Known about the structure:
Strand order of the largest sheet: 1-2-4-3
Strand content: 15-25%
Oligomer: single chain
Helix content: 40-55%
Number of strands: 4
Structural class: alpha+beta
Distance between the termini: 18 Å
Radius of gyration: 15 Å
Amino acid sequence: MDTPxxxxxxxxxxxxxAVSKFEKVxxxxxxxxxxxxxxxxxxxxxxxxxxxxxxxxxxNNDQGIKLIKGMRTALFENARNHLEExxxxxxxIEIVSMHSDVSTRTGEKVIVLTVSCDIEERI
Length: 123
């Protein structure tokens, strides 16, 4: 049986759903909003409402920002293999690298994945 062909928007939605579930299970709660965009051999995921209110309050000084970024980076790094597997199950393309950062000003998190080939060409 052939695998069904998905549109770019459907693949982006599947990735957003998988990341949202990942955030709930591994990071403690789901995001307020999430957008995924496929751009050639990159997947860009933008998560809104990523920080807790207490973290936003803590981000009022450099020491607080350092603590938040350090903790969130460590949590992400500990679970990143699972997230890579979830995304690979959707796109079925080797993930070359994954990067993430959180803005302590806006509470937004960005994840950028580089994959081994142009996804848009395969759709």
